[in-house]
Design brief:
seven-stranded antiparallel β-sheet, alpha/beta, Immunoglobulin-like, 2 domains
């Protein structure tokens, strides 16, 4: 297959919407294992924005006289660390502290075990008084602006709550049937109004949004119409997208891993957003995955092995390709890492960027490679539905990502041989990185070793095999390349 890239054929400027993560659980930020992950992510510049929770349940109590009391020590510890590492923050204002909950026992876990991390539960009821919710949002916003400065916080994204259309997070004591969506929407409208009022009382320069939608389209329409009717501030619209795919649907064959389904879901959101006249708002997919089920692993579904192998990195690059060619204002997409604290074995199928012993998964290596893409998109056409290409300029570098994969991602594709021709490019240095079954893939290496018991000697080998390894290429204008099934190859050419 012949592929020509001309550095003078510019398509448009782009911004990096793909290198962002939702780190979960938030309270792992203060723990050694959480810091170990984020230290690596920060050092490798694998993520620009990190979504985290305010965890009001750690902050707010009420004294005997009914006065709200605040203890910001834990939230300060977490945010100080994130600021020190240079991350931008998407801060989700949740959950309802027990002291202002209208139903004290309306608790949920949303984890594989009986409780969330550190034995915590969340209260899913409405506030007993929305004025109390506004006061909490105000005091918290006032505190972070005083601590980190208005200029810094104005670059953060402040979000009201998480998945208010989902019973795991809102009114869990009601059935999850469609007819109960209006009850959840009514609560959320009042919460958002109070949240927006609180933030604006501190500063009108801060960026606010919601609803961090689990996926219910009537809920989204009702929320956006409410924003219009009340003329409330909404700087970004946040939604979740798991490609209409679950472990159950993968197991029973009604779904396959599909970037097309992810794009279909995003277009459903955009249809609602356009109908409400809000297509110019920033779209933030603040949780994405190839499948939902963050607390599902190989014990739940053997199909979850894609989270450990080369399939997920190939899916990631295919997804970037899909969104680059859509007319939507996609500002950010953040991979969801919930479930990573549940790991008890090396390769378990949980969501996460690293294995139990901190081996980088192929999806993490994919994030590292994607961070090298530039801000100028060049015109390319492979003429193939399997081979995709992203060609960009990044300063004096031509950065090209090639991926050989298609739906269903576990299907065997033949190797593809590519003759890459460069035009108007005088190459001074050429480097290639590859992620496939045999490269930058700890799980693939473990399988090739016969899946031995993982001891120190095996881990030593896997650390080498899981690492991204650069390969120097000769300088020229033609390159002969071979990509395996579900392979990602990133080529970086330093130009004179």
């Amino acid at each position: 297959m012949n592929l020509t890239i001309d550095t003078q054929k510019v398509e448009r400027k782009i911004s990096n919407f793909w290198n962002h993560i939702h780190f979960h659980p938030t309270d792992a930020i203060e723990d050694a294992w959480g810091k170990r992950i984020l230290d690596r992510v920060g050092a490798d510049k694998a993520a620009e924005t990190v979504r985290m929770y305010t965890m009001f349940e750690d902050v707010v109590t009420m004294d005997e006289e009914g006065k709200l009391c605040y203890d910001f020590r834990l939230t300060d510890l977490r945010l100080d660390y994130m600021v020190e590492k240079g991350f931008h923050i998407l801060l989700s204002y949740n959950f309802i502290p027990d002291c202002i909950a209208s139903v004290k026992n309306a608790t949920a876990s949303n984890s594989k075990r009986k409780t969330r991390y550190k034995g915590k539960l969340i209260n899913t009821s409405a506030p007993v008084n929305f004025g109390l919710w506004e006061e909490i949002c105000y005091e918290y916003t006032k505190h972070i602006v005083e601590r980190y400065g208005e200029q810094r916080v104005s670059n953060w994204y402040l979000q009201c709550y998480n998945e208010p259309d989902h019973p795991c997070f809102m009114l869990s004591y009601l059935p999850s049937k469609q007819e109960h969506i209006p009850a959840r929407l009514d609560v959320y409208k009042n919460m958002y109004r109070s949240f927006q009022n609180a933030v604006r009382r501190v500063s009108k320069n801060l960026c606010v949004g919601g609803p961090a939608l689990a996926g219910n389209l009537p809920f989204l329409e009702g929320f956006l119409n409410f924003i219009k009717e009340e003329k409330l501030q909404l700087d970004f619209i946040s939604v979740h997208n798991y490609a209409k795919c679950s472990p159950t649907s993968l197991d029973n064959g009604t779904r396959t891993l599909s970037t097309e389904l992810a794009l279909e879901k995003t277009n459903e959101y955009m249809d609602v957003i356009r109908q409400c006249g809000m297509q110019d708002k920033k779209l933030v997919i603040d949780e994405w995955g190839a499948s939902c089920g963050g607390f599902c692993d190989l014990d739940t579904s053997a199909k979850m092995i894609f989270r450990e192998n080369e399939i997920f990195s190939a899916y990631f690059f295919k997804l970037i390709c899909c969104y680059l060619h859509q007319d939507i204002n996609l500002d950010k997409m953040l991979i969801c890492l919930s479930g990573q604290h549940e790991m008890e074995k090396e390769f378990t199928g949980f969501r996460g960027l690293f294995t139990l012993n901190s081996l980088p998964k192929p999806i993490y290596n994919g994030y590292c490679l994607a961070s090298r893409l530039g801000d100028t998109l060049l015109k390319t056409d492979t003429g193939s539905d399997a081979l995709s290409c992203i060609a960009t300029l990044n300063g004096n570098k031509l950065v090209v990502a090639l991926v050989n994969a298609k739906t269903p991602f576990d299907a065997e594709l033949p190797e593809v041989n590519v003759e890459l021709n460069l035009k108007n490019a005088k190459v001074q240095q050429a480097t290639a990185w590859t992620i496939d079954q045999s490269h930058a893939n700890g799980y693939g290496a473990w399988c090739q070793m016969g899946k031995p018991e993982i001891d120190d000697a095996v881990l030593k080998t896997l650390r080498v095999k899981s690492a991204l390894t650069p390969e120097s290429l000769p300088c020229g204008d033609t390159y002969s390349l071979t990509l395996q099934n579900n392979a990602v190859m990133l080529l970086e050419f330093v130009l004179s």
